[in-house]
Amino acid sequence: MQYVMTRSERRKQQNLLIQAWRFVALSLRFMKLTCADCKYARRDQESRGLHPADAGQPRRLV
Amino acid sequence: MARTVIIGAGFSGQYAALILQNALKDVDGDHEITMVNLHPRFTYIPSLIWVGVGQIKPAKAQFDLQPVYDRLGIDFIEGRARSIHLDDNYIVVETDDGVSQRVSYDYLIVATGPHLDYAATPGLGPEKGYTQSICTPPHAERTAASYRNLLERLEKGDKARVVVGTGHGCCTCQGAGFEFISLLHNDLKDRGLRDRVEMTWLSNEPRPGDFGIDGFEMRRGPVIFSSEDMASALFEEFDIHMELHSHVHRVDDKTIHTENARGEFKEIDYDFTMLIPPFKGQPLEYRDSEGNDIKDRMCNPAGFVKVDAFYGKCYEEIDCFDWPRTYQSPEYANLYSCGIAFAPPGCISRPCTSPNGVQLMPAIPRTGYTSELTGKAAALNVAEMIQGREPSHTASLAETPGMCIASLKNSWLRGSAATIGIHPIVRNKAAYPDNGRDMDLGRVEIGLAGAWLKKGLHHAFLYKLSAKPGWQYLP
Asked: Quick check: pTM over 0.90?
Protein backbone atom coordinates (compact mmCIF):
# COMPACT_ATOMS: atom_id res chain seq x y z
CA MET A 1 0.00 0.00 0.00
CA GLN A 2 1.43 3.39 -0.98
CA TYR A 3 1.55 5.73 1.97
CA VAL A 4 0.39 9.26 1.16
CA MET A 5 0.78 12.07 3.67
CA THR A 6 -2.47 13.84 4.53
CA ARG A 7 -2.82 17.63 4.84
CA SER A 8 -3.39 17.34 8.59
CA GLU A 9 -0.21 15.27 8.98
CA ARG A 10 1.70 17.90 7.02
CA ARG A 11 0.40 20.65 9.35
CA LYS A 12 1.37 18.60 12.38
CA GLN A 13 4.90 18.27 11.06
CA GLN A 14 5.49 22.01 11.44
CA ASN A 15 3.27 22.89 14.41
CA LEU A 16 5.71 23.93 17.15
CA LEU A 17 3.62 22.73 20.09
CA ILE A 18 2.92 19.36 18.54
CA GLN A 19 6.56 19.05 17.52
CA ALA A 20 7.74 19.89 21.05
CA TRP A 21 5.57 17.06 22.29
CA ARG A 22 6.88 14.77 19.53
CA PHE A 23 10.44 15.69 20.50
CA VAL A 24 9.82 14.47 24.03
CA ALA A 25 8.00 11.37 22.78
CA LEU A 26 10.74 10.50 20.30
CA SER A 27 13.46 11.03 22.91
CA LEU A 28 11.61 8.67 25.23
CA ARG A 29 11.19 6.18 22.39
CA PHE A 30 14.92 6.28 21.74
CA MET A 31 15.59 5.73 25.44
CA LYS A 32 13.21 2.78 25.33
CA LEU A 33 15.03 1.40 22.29
CA THR A 34 18.38 1.65 24.06
CA CYS A 35 16.86 -0.50 26.79
CA ALA A 36 15.40 -2.90 24.26
CA ASP A 37 18.30 -5.28 24.64
CA CYS A 38 17.27 -5.71 28.28
CA LYS A 39 13.80 -6.64 27.08
CA TYR A 40 15.42 -9.07 24.67
CA ALA A 41 17.43 -10.56 27.51
CA ARG A 42 14.21 -11.12 29.47
CA ARG A 43 12.72 -12.83 26.46
CA ASP A 44 15.83 -14.96 26.38
CA GLN A 45 15.21 -16.12 29.90
CA GLU A 46 11.75 -17.09 28.83
CA SER A 47 13.43 -19.22 26.15
CA ARG A 48 12.36 -17.01 23.27
CA GLY A 49 15.21 -16.65 20.85
CA LEU A 50 17.72 -18.37 23.11
CA HIS A 51 21.14 -18.31 21.53
CA PRO A 52 22.59 -21.85 21.25
CA ALA A 53 25.86 -20.58 22.75
CA ASP A 54 24.06 -19.37 25.84
CA ALA A 55 23.03 -22.69 27.31
CA GLY A 56 24.23 -22.52 30.88
CA GLN A 57 26.49 -19.56 30.15
CA PRO A 58 26.44 -16.22 31.93
CA ARG A 59 25.47 -13.47 29.54
CA ARG A 60 25.44 -9.71 29.75
CA LEU A 61 24.18 -7.50 26.98
CA VAL A 62 26.02 -4.19 26.81
CA MET B 1 49.83 -4.73 34.30
CA ALA B 2 48.08 -5.07 30.93
CA ARG B 3 48.44 -2.82 27.94
CA THR B 4 45.52 -2.46 25.54
CA VAL B 5 46.07 -0.85 22.16
CA ILE B 6 43.13 0.48 20.18
CA ILE B 7 43.57 1.26 16.49
CA GLY B 8 41.16 3.95 15.33
CA ALA B 9 39.40 6.75 17.19
CA GLY B 10 36.10 6.67 15.36
CA PHE B 11 32.75 5.91 16.96
CA SER B 12 33.61 2.41 18.15
CA GLY B 13 37.32 2.93 18.92
CA GLN B 14 36.83 6.16 20.83
CA TYR B 15 33.91 4.77 22.81
CA ALA B 16 35.86 1.56 23.50
CA ALA B 17 38.74 3.66 24.89
CA LEU B 18 36.42 5.60 27.21
CA ILE B 19 34.53 2.49 28.36
CA LEU B 20 37.74 0.54 28.96
CA GLN B 21 39.34 3.39 30.89
CA ASN B 22 36.21 3.65 33.01
CA ALA B 23 36.01 -0.13 33.56
CA LEU B 24 39.65 -0.40 34.63
CA LYS B 25 39.57 2.55 37.06
CA ASP B 26 38.85 0.35 40.05
CA VAL B 27 40.76 -2.73 38.90
CA ASP B 28 44.01 -3.59 40.67
CA GLY B 29 47.19 -3.00 38.68
CA ASP B 30 48.49 -0.18 36.57
CA HIS B 31 46.78 -0.88 33.26
CA GLU B 32 47.57 1.14 30.16
CA ILE B 33 45.47 2.11 27.18
CA THR B 34 47.07 3.39 23.97
CA MET B 35 45.12 4.89 21.11
CA VAL B 36 46.62 4.86 17.60
CA ASN B 37 44.82 7.15 15.19
CA LEU B 38 45.73 8.69 11.88
CA HIS B 39 44.22 12.07 12.71
CA PRO B 40 44.58 14.32 15.77
CA ARG B 41 40.83 15.04 15.85
CA PHE B 42 37.66 13.03 16.28
CA THR B 43 35.06 13.66 13.55
CA TYR B 44 31.35 13.11 14.03
CA ILE B 45 30.86 11.68 10.52
CA PRO B 46 27.01 11.90 10.37
CA SER B 47 27.20 15.71 10.45
CA LEU B 48 29.44 15.81 7.36
CA ILE B 49 26.27 15.79 5.25
CA TRP B 50 25.67 19.35 6.53
CA VAL B 51 29.26 20.23 5.62
CA GLY B 52 28.64 18.92 2.10
CA VAL B 53 25.82 21.40 1.49
CA GLY B 54 27.81 24.23 3.07
CA GLN B 55 25.62 24.56 6.17
CA ILE B 56 28.35 23.99 8.77
CA LYS B 57 32.17 23.90 8.84
CA PRO B 58 33.91 20.58 9.67
CA ALA B 59 35.29 22.04 12.90
CA LYS B 60 31.73 22.05 14.31
CA ALA B 61 31.72 18.26 14.07
CA GLN B 62 35.19 17.69 15.52
CA PHE B 63 37.22 17.89 18.72
CA ASP B 64 40.91 17.43 19.57
CA LEU B 65 41.74 14.00 20.94
CA GLN B 66 44.93 14.79 22.87
CA PRO B 67 43.31 16.93 25.63
CA VAL B 68 40.70 14.21 26.20
CA TYR B 69 43.37 11.52 26.51
CA ASP B 70 45.53 13.73 28.75
CA ARG B 71 42.58 14.05 31.09
CA LEU B 72 41.86 10.31 31.10
CA GLY B 73 45.44 9.06 31.18
CA ILE B 74 45.28 7.39 27.76
CA ASP B 75 48.42 7.38 25.59
CA PHE B 76 47.97 8.74 22.10
CA ILE B 77 50.05 7.96 19.02
CA GLU B 78 49.16 9.92 15.92
CA GLY B 79 50.04 7.69 13.00
CA ARG B 80 48.98 4.93 10.64
CA ALA B 81 49.03 1.33 11.85
CA ARG B 82 50.83 -0.63 9.15
CA SER B 83 51.04 -4.19 10.45
CA ILE B 84 49.90 -6.40 13.31
CA HIS B 85 52.30 -9.11 14.51
CA LEU B 86 49.85 -11.41 16.19
CA ASP B 87 52.17 -14.03 17.69
CA ASP B 88 54.58 -11.44 19.03
CA ASN B 89 51.87 -9.03 20.26
CA TYR B 90 53.00 -5.80 18.68
CA ILE B 91 51.88 -3.47 15.93
CA VAL B 92 53.98 -1.24 13.70
CA VAL B 93 52.86 2.36 13.48
CA GLU B 94 54.13 4.85 10.93
CA THR B 95 53.99 8.47 12.01
CA ASP B 96 53.66 11.52 9.75
CA ASP B 97 57.43 12.09 9.64
CA GLY B 98 57.88 8.61 8.16
CA VAL B 99 59.25 7.04 11.35
CA SER B 100 58.06 3.51 12.16
CA GLN B 101 57.69 2.39 15.75
CA ARG B 102 56.73 -0.84 17.44
CA VAL B 103 53.87 -0.67 19.93
CA SER B 104 53.48 -3.79 22.03
CA TYR B 105 50.14 -4.89 23.44
CA ASP B 106 48.50 -7.50 25.62
CA TYR B 107 45.08 -6.83 24.11
CA LEU B 108 44.32 -5.24 20.76
CA ILE B 109 41.07 -3.68 19.52
CA VAL B 110 40.96 -3.07 15.76
CA ALA B 111 38.48 -0.27 15.13
CA THR B 112 40.00 1.21 12.00
CA GLY B 113 36.78 2.02 10.19
CA PRO B 114 36.63 1.51 6.43
CA HIS B 115 39.01 2.17 3.59
CA LEU B 116 37.06 4.19 1.01
CA ASP B 117 37.52 2.06 -2.11
CA TYR B 118 37.14 4.66 -4.87
CA ALA B 119 39.35 2.50 -7.10
CA ALA B 120 36.56 -0.11 -7.34
CA THR B 121 34.78 2.09 -9.89
CA PRO B 122 36.79 3.95 -12.56
CA GLY B 123 36.13 7.67 -12.34
CA LEU B 124 34.73 7.53 -8.79
CA GLY B 125 35.90 9.94 -6.10
CA PRO B 126 36.98 13.55 -5.80
CA GLU B 127 40.72 12.97 -6.12
CA LYS B 128 41.20 10.64 -9.08
CA GLY B 129 37.67 10.78 -10.42
CA TYR B 130 34.77 13.10 -11.13
CA THR B 131 32.34 12.49 -8.27
CA GLN B 132 32.01 14.23 -4.93
CA SER B 133 31.93 12.50 -1.54
CA ILE B 134 30.95 13.39 2.02
CA CYS B 135 32.86 10.60 3.76
CA THR B 136 35.77 12.67 5.12
CA PRO B 137 36.02 16.33 6.21
CA PRO B 138 38.21 17.38 3.21
CA HIS B 139 35.89 15.57 0.80
CA ALA B 140 32.81 17.15 2.35
CA GLU B 141 34.39 20.62 2.07
CA ARG B 142 35.23 19.94 -1.54
CA THR B 143 31.62 18.89 -2.13
CA ALA B 144 30.44 22.15 -0.57
CA ALA B 145 32.72 24.13 -2.93
CA SER B 146 31.45 22.19 -5.93
CA TYR B 147 27.86 22.80 -4.79
CA ARG B 148 28.57 26.54 -4.51
CA ASN B 149 29.78 26.50 -8.13
CA LEU B 150 26.58 24.74 -9.12
CA LEU B 151 24.51 27.39 -7.31
CA GLU B 152 26.35 30.19 -9.16
CA ARG B 153 25.52 28.56 -12.48
CA LEU B 154 21.90 28.06 -11.50
CA GLU B 155 21.61 31.68 -10.38
CA LYS B 156 22.75 32.73 -13.85
CA GLY B 157 19.80 30.82 -15.27
CA ASP B 158 21.47 27.52 -16.21
CA LYS B 159 19.71 24.20 -15.73
CA ALA B 160 21.48 21.25 -14.15
CA ARG B 161 21.25 17.53 -13.51
CA VAL B 162 22.14 16.29 -10.04
CA VAL B 163 22.78 12.61 -9.28
CA VAL B 164 23.22 11.34 -5.72
CA GLY B 165 23.55 7.80 -4.42
CA THR B 166 25.96 4.88 -4.39
CA GLY B 167 28.96 4.44 -6.69
CA HIS B 168 29.11 0.64 -6.77
CA GLY B 169 26.84 -2.40 -6.47
CA CYS B 170 28.34 -3.37 -3.10
CA CYS B 171 28.05 -0.02 -1.32
CA THR B 172 26.60 0.64 2.09
CA CYS B 173 25.50 3.91 3.80
CA GLN B 174 22.61 4.55 1.41
CA GLY B 175 21.06 6.52 4.28
CA ALA B 176 23.79 9.17 4.05
CA GLY B 177 23.07 9.60 0.34
CA PHE B 178 19.34 9.77 1.09
CA GLU B 179 19.96 12.56 3.61
CA PHE B 180 22.23 14.41 1.23
CA ILE B 181 19.80 14.42 -1.70
CA SER B 182 16.96 15.52 0.62
CA LEU B 183 19.08 18.37 2.01
CA LEU B 184 20.02 19.42 -1.54
CA HIS B 185 16.37 19.41 -2.58
CA ASN B 186 15.29 21.57 0.34
CA ASP B 187 18.25 23.94 0.02
CA LEU B 188 17.57 24.46 -3.69
CA LYS B 189 13.87 24.94 -2.93
CA ASP B 190 14.65 27.62 -0.32
CA ARG B 191 16.86 29.43 -2.82
CA GLY B 192 14.14 29.31 -5.48
CA LEU B 193 16.33 27.21 -7.77
CA ARG B 194 14.77 23.77 -7.46
CA ASP B 195 12.82 24.03 -10.73
CA ARG B 196 16.09 24.37 -12.64
CA VAL B 197 17.43 21.07 -11.37
CA GLU B 198 16.61 17.53 -12.42
CA MET B 199 17.45 15.21 -9.52
CA THR B 200 18.15 11.47 -9.65
CA TRP B 201 18.59 8.98 -6.80
CA LEU B 202 20.98 6.27 -8.03
CA SER B 203 21.24 3.36 -5.62
CA ASN B 204 22.19 -0.30 -5.31
CA GLU B 205 19.17 -0.89 -3.03
CA PRO B 206 16.60 -3.34 -4.42
CA ARG B 207 13.77 -0.98 -3.42
CA PRO B 208 13.48 2.56 -2.05
CA GLY B 209 14.00 2.73 1.71
CA ASP B 210 15.97 -0.52 1.89
CA PHE B 211 19.02 1.31 3.35
CA GLY B 212 21.07 -1.91 3.32
CA ILE B 213 19.03 -3.33 6.21
CA ASP B 214 16.27 -4.95 4.15
CA GLY B 215 14.03 -1.97 4.94
CA PHE B 216 11.84 -1.90 8.03
CA GLU B 217 8.21 -1.92 9.02
CA MET B 218 6.22 -0.51 11.89
CA ARG B 219 2.63 -0.60 12.99
CA ARG B 220 0.78 2.66 12.38
CA GLY B 221 -2.70 2.16 13.72
CA PRO B 222 -4.32 -0.61 11.71
CA VAL B 223 -1.81 -0.55 8.85
CA ILE B 224 1.78 -1.66 8.51
CA PHE B 225 3.90 1.26 7.40
CA SER B 226 7.20 0.46 5.67
CA SER B 227 10.39 2.31 4.88
CA GLU B 228 9.58 1.73 1.22
CA ASP B 229 6.36 3.73 1.67
CA MET B 230 8.28 6.49 3.43
CA ALA B 231 11.09 6.78 0.87
CA SER B 232 8.74 6.46 -2.13
CA ALA B 233 6.43 9.16 -0.75
CA LEU B 234 9.35 11.51 -0.06
CA PHE B 235 10.96 11.02 -3.47
CA GLU B 236 7.60 11.58 -5.13
CA GLU B 237 7.00 14.73 -3.09
CA PHE B 238 10.54 15.97 -3.82
CA ASP B 239 10.20 15.11 -7.53
CA ILE B 240 13.32 12.94 -7.46
CA HIS B 241 13.69 10.29 -10.17
CA MET B 242 14.89 6.88 -8.94
CA GLU B 243 17.38 4.48 -10.55
CA LEU B 244 17.42 1.52 -8.16
CA HIS B 245 19.22 -1.82 -7.95
CA SER B 246 22.04 -0.37 -10.03
CA HIS B 247 25.78 -0.88 -10.19
CA VAL B 248 28.05 1.88 -11.51
CA HIS B 249 30.53 0.57 -14.10
CA ARG B 250 32.39 3.86 -14.59
CA VAL B 251 32.03 7.60 -14.36
CA ASP B 252 33.15 10.03 -17.05
CA ASP B 253 33.36 13.79 -16.69
CA LYS B 254 29.71 14.15 -17.74
CA THR B 255 28.15 10.67 -17.61
CA ILE B 256 27.62 7.82 -15.15
CA HIS B 257 27.53 4.39 -16.81
CA THR B 258 25.31 1.97 -14.91
CA GLU B 259 23.84 -1.51 -15.13
CA ASN B 260 20.77 -2.58 -13.20
CA ALA B 261 19.65 -5.96 -11.85
CA ARG B 262 17.75 -6.66 -15.08
CA GLY B 263 20.99 -6.28 -17.03
CA GLU B 264 19.97 -2.95 -18.61
CA PHE B 265 22.87 -0.59 -19.30
CA LYS B 266 22.14 3.11 -18.80
CA GLU B 267 24.01 6.37 -19.22
CA ILE B 268 23.04 9.07 -16.75
CA ASP B 269 24.30 12.57 -17.53
CA TYR B 270 25.13 14.85 -14.63
CA ASP B 271 26.42 18.33 -13.77
CA PHE B 272 26.92 17.60 -10.06
CA THR B 273 27.14 14.19 -8.46
CA MET B 274 27.83 12.79 -5.00
CA LEU B 275 28.27 9.03 -4.91
CA ILE B 276 29.16 7.03 -1.79
CA PRO B 277 32.12 4.69 -2.48
CA PRO B 278 32.21 1.01 -1.50
CA PHE B 279 34.04 0.19 1.73
CA LYS B 280 36.96 -2.19 2.23
CA GLY B 281 39.01 -3.10 5.26
CA GLN B 282 41.98 -0.85 5.94
CA PRO B 283 45.17 -2.07 4.24
CA LEU B 284 46.72 -3.53 7.39
CA GLU B 285 49.20 -6.40 7.26
CA TYR B 286 48.64 -9.40 9.53
CA ARG B 287 51.85 -11.35 10.30
CA ASP B 288 52.62 -14.49 12.27
CA SER B 289 55.81 -15.20 14.25
CA GLU B 290 57.76 -16.03 11.07
CA GLY B 291 56.60 -12.91 9.30
CA ASN B 292 54.17 -14.77 7.02
CA ASP B 293 51.17 -12.87 5.73
CA ILE B 294 48.09 -14.40 7.44
CA LYS B 295 45.55 -11.85 6.27
CA ASP B 296 43.51 -14.56 4.52
CA ARG B 297 43.10 -16.32 7.85
CA MET B 298 42.30 -13.18 9.81
CA CYS B 299 40.08 -11.26 7.38
CA ASN B 300 37.32 -11.81 4.84
CA PRO B 301 38.07 -11.09 1.14
CA ALA B 302 37.12 -7.41 1.61
CA GLY B 303 39.72 -7.06 4.36
CA PHE B 304 37.35 -6.84 7.35
CA VAL B 305 38.48 -8.68 10.48
CA LYS B 306 36.78 -12.00 11.21
CA VAL B 307 35.32 -12.23 14.69
CA ASP B 308 33.01 -14.66 16.49
CA ALA B 309 30.48 -14.92 13.66
CA PHE B 310 29.61 -17.95 11.54
CA TYR B 311 31.07 -17.24 8.13
CA GLY B 312 30.63 -18.95 4.80
CA LYS B 313 26.86 -19.37 4.71
CA CYS B 314 24.79 -18.18 1.75
CA TYR B 315 22.19 -15.41 2.17
CA GLU B 316 19.23 -17.77 2.68
CA GLU B 317 21.06 -19.78 5.35
CA ILE B 318 22.32 -16.94 7.54
CA ASP B 319 20.20 -16.54 10.65
CA CYS B 320 20.27 -14.32 13.69
CA PHE B 321 22.63 -16.63 15.60
CA ASP B 322 25.35 -16.24 12.96
CA TRP B 323 25.99 -12.60 13.81
CA PRO B 324 28.98 -11.84 16.06
CA ARG B 325 28.35 -11.20 19.72
CA THR B 326 31.58 -10.64 21.66
CA TYR B 327 33.67 -9.34 18.71
CA GLN B 328 36.58 -11.56 19.74
CA SER B 329 38.80 -13.06 17.05
CA PRO B 330 38.49 -16.86 16.79
CA GLU B 331 42.22 -17.04 15.99
CA TYR B 332 43.70 -14.85 18.72
CA ALA B 333 41.80 -14.45 21.98
CA ASN B 334 43.45 -11.10 22.76
CA LEU B 335 42.28 -9.55 19.48
CA TYR B 336 38.90 -7.82 19.08
CA SER B 337 37.45 -5.91 16.16
CA CYS B 338 34.45 -3.59 16.20
CA GLY B 339 32.66 -0.83 14.33
CA ILE B 340 32.95 -1.03 10.56
CA ALA B 341 36.23 -2.98 10.85
CA PHE B 342 34.64 -6.34 11.81
CA ALA B 343 33.53 -8.74 9.08
CA PRO B 344 29.77 -9.32 8.99
CA PRO B 345 28.67 -12.86 8.09
CA GLY B 346 26.75 -11.54 5.08
CA CYS B 347 24.19 -9.05 3.83
CA ILE B 348 20.79 -8.30 5.39
CA SER B 349 19.43 -6.97 2.10
CA ARG B 350 18.87 -9.65 -0.50
CA PRO B 351 21.86 -9.78 -2.85
CA CYS B 352 21.47 -10.53 -6.54
CA THR B 353 23.50 -10.94 -9.71
CA SER B 354 22.57 -9.26 -12.97
CA PRO B 355 22.23 -11.40 -16.14
CA ASN B 356 25.71 -10.14 -17.07
CA GLY B 357 27.21 -11.35 -13.79
CA VAL B 358 27.39 -8.04 -11.92
CA GLN B 359 26.87 -8.47 -8.19
CA LEU B 360 24.44 -6.17 -6.37
CA MET B 361 25.00 -6.58 -2.65
CA PRO B 362 23.95 -3.61 -0.51
CA ALA B 363 26.16 -4.05 2.55
CA ILE B 364 24.94 -3.57 6.10
CA PRO B 365 25.58 -0.11 7.58
CA ARG B 366 27.12 -0.32 11.06
CA THR B 367 27.94 3.22 12.05
CA GLY B 368 26.86 5.53 14.88
CA TYR B 369 25.12 3.96 17.84
CA THR B 370 25.53 0.43 16.46
CA SER B 371 29.24 1.00 16.09
CA GLU B 372 29.43 2.27 19.65
CA LEU B 373 27.69 -0.81 21.03
CA THR B 374 30.17 -3.12 19.31
CA GLY B 375 33.05 -1.04 20.70
CA LYS B 376 31.51 -1.14 24.15
CA ALA B 377 31.17 -4.95 24.05
CA ALA B 378 34.79 -5.32 22.90
CA ALA B 379 36.07 -2.96 25.64
CA LEU B 380 34.07 -4.62 28.43
CA ASN B 381 35.25 -8.04 27.29
CA VAL B 382 38.89 -6.89 27.32
CA ALA B 383 38.32 -5.55 30.85
CA GLU B 384 36.92 -8.94 31.88
CA MET B 385 39.90 -10.79 30.40
CA ILE B 386 42.30 -8.45 32.20
CA GLN B 387 40.56 -9.50 35.42
CA GLY B 388 40.99 -13.15 34.48
CA ARG B 389 37.41 -13.81 33.46
CA GLU B 390 35.87 -15.10 30.25
CA PRO B 391 34.38 -12.43 27.95
CA SER B 392 30.63 -12.34 28.50
CA HIS B 393 29.45 -9.01 27.09
CA THR B 394 27.54 -9.25 23.85
CA ALA B 395 26.19 -6.79 21.30
CA SER B 396 24.87 -8.88 18.44
CA LEU B 397 23.24 -6.86 15.68
CA ALA B 398 20.39 -9.39 15.90
CA GLU B 399 19.72 -8.24 19.48
CA THR B 400 20.53 -4.53 19.53
CA PRO B 401 18.49 -1.58 18.29
CA GLY B 402 19.26 0.61 15.31
CA MET B 403 18.60 4.33 15.52
CA CYS B 404 19.01 6.82 12.74
CA ILE B 405 17.84 10.34 12.10
CA ALA B 406 17.98 11.35 8.45
CA SER B 407 18.19 15.12 8.18
CA LEU B 408 15.92 16.42 5.43
CA LYS B 409 16.29 20.10 6.23
CA ASN B 410 18.58 21.66 8.81
CA SER B 411 16.73 24.49 10.52
CA TRP B 412 15.47 25.18 14.07
CA LEU B 413 12.05 26.41 12.96
CA ARG B 414 11.50 25.03 9.48
CA GLY B 415 13.65 21.92 9.63
CA SER B 416 12.62 18.34 9.08
CA ALA B 417 14.09 14.90 9.61
CA ALA B 418 13.06 11.27 9.31
CA THR B 419 13.47 9.68 12.72
CA ILE B 420 13.92 5.93 12.50
CA GLY B 421 14.21 3.47 15.37
CA ILE B 422 14.14 -0.29 14.89
CA HIS B 423 14.80 -3.35 17.02
CA PRO B 424 16.77 -5.39 16.24
CA ILE B 425 18.89 -4.33 13.24
CA VAL B 426 19.25 -7.82 11.81
CA ARG B 427 15.92 -9.59 11.49
CA ASN B 428 15.64 -12.08 14.35
CA LYS B 429 12.99 -14.67 13.56
CA ALA B 430 13.73 -16.58 16.77
CA ALA B 431 12.63 -13.66 18.94
CA TYR B 432 10.11 -12.09 16.56
CA PRO B 433 8.71 -14.88 14.37
CA ASP B 434 6.42 -12.63 12.28
CA ASN B 435 8.88 -10.42 10.48
CA GLY B 436 12.03 -10.58 12.60
CA ARG B 437 11.60 -7.19 14.26
CA ASP B 438 9.52 -5.70 17.06
CA MET B 439 7.01 -3.69 15.03
CA ASP B 440 5.44 -2.12 18.12
CA LEU B 441 8.73 -0.82 19.46
CA GLY B 442 9.98 0.51 16.09
CA ARG B 443 9.23 4.09 15.17
CA VAL B 444 9.38 6.07 11.95
CA GLU B 445 8.34 9.69 11.95
CA ILE B 446 9.01 12.72 9.77
CA GLY B 447 8.88 16.24 11.15
CA LEU B 448 10.51 19.18 12.85
CA ALA B 449 10.96 17.25 16.11
CA GLY B 450 13.36 14.94 14.27
CA ALA B 451 15.42 17.94 13.15
CA TRP B 452 15.77 19.03 16.78
CA LEU B 453 16.65 15.50 17.80
CA LYS B 454 19.28 15.34 15.05
CA LYS B 455 20.90 18.52 16.34
CA GLY B 456 20.61 17.18 19.89
CA LEU B 457 22.33 13.93 18.94
CA HIS B 458 25.14 15.84 17.22
CA HIS B 459 25.92 17.66 20.47
CA ALA B 460 25.24 14.64 22.71
CA PHE B 461 27.65 12.39 20.79
CA LEU B 462 30.38 15.06 20.77
CA TYR B 463 29.82 15.62 24.50
CA LYS B 464 29.88 11.94 25.35
CA LEU B 465 32.86 10.99 23.17
CA SER B 466 34.94 13.89 24.47
CA ALA B 467 34.36 12.43 27.97
CA LYS B 468 32.82 15.56 29.46
CA PRO B 469 31.38 15.24 33.01
CA GLY B 470 28.65 12.64 33.24
CA TRP B 471 29.37 11.09 29.82
CA GLN B 472 28.94 7.63 31.35
CA TYR B 473 25.23 8.28 31.88
CA LEU B 474 24.49 9.04 28.23
CA PRO B 475 23.27 5.95 26.34
From this structure: yes
**Mapping DSSP to helix (H, G, I), strand (E, B) and coil, where does residue B99 land?**
coil
Report helix, strand or coil for B335: strand
Instruction: Please tell me the distance from the alpha carbon of residue B29 to that of residue B386, in angstroms, as a whole number.
Output: 10
Q: Pick from B443, B454, B472 the residue to mutate for testing the A interface (most A CBs within 10 Å).
A: B443
CB-CB neighbors (< 8 A) of A49 in chain B: 320, 428, 430-432
Q: What is the pLDDT of residues B193-234, one digit of tens each?
A: 999 999 999 999 999 999 999 999 988 788 888 999 999 999
Comparing alpha-carbon positions, the chain A residue that sits nearest to B323 is: A51
Q: What is the pLDDT of residues B131-156, one digit of tens each?
A: 999 999 999 999 999 999 999 999 99
> What is the Cα–Cα distance from B74 to B77, expressed in whole angstroms?
10
Its ipTM equals 0.87
Report the SS3 class of residue B232.
helix
Among the residues of A1-62, which ranges form H helices? 7-14, 16-34, 36-45
Contact call for A23 and B452, based on CB within 8 A: yes
Question: What distances in angstroms separate CA B414 from CA B65, B179, B235, one per listed residue?
Answer: 34, 16, 19
